[in-house]
Amino acid sequence: GLGDVYKRQVQQASVLPIITEEQAACLLQVSIPQMIRLRIKHNLPHFRVGTRLIRYDREKLMETLQNLNMQ
Questions:
Q1: Distances in Å between the alpha carbon of 52 and those of 20, 21, 29, 46, 56?
Q2: Residue 8, pLDDT score
Q3: Model pTM score
Q4: Which run of H or E residues covers position 49?
Q5: How far apart are CA 57 and CA 71, in angstroms?
Q6: Between 20 and 30 A from 69 (CA), which of 28, 35, 54, 59?
Q7: Which residues pair with 53 in a beta bridge?
């Protein structure tokens, strides 16, 4: 079911070095629109694959978010 898909996304997001926007949202326990807002508002480190696909370096993302939490 959908729960299994979500669990798989979270498991992958916690180990893969490069993650999708959906996996980043799962990892941070936010919706995809919230993830997009966070990326734009806080200029989260990301890169594009082609013109549309967003990817994150998981370690850089987590490091940036920890630094934001400390401020």
A1: 12, 11, 23, 12, 13
A2: 79
A3: 0.82
A4: strand 47-49
A5: 22
A6: 54
A7: 49
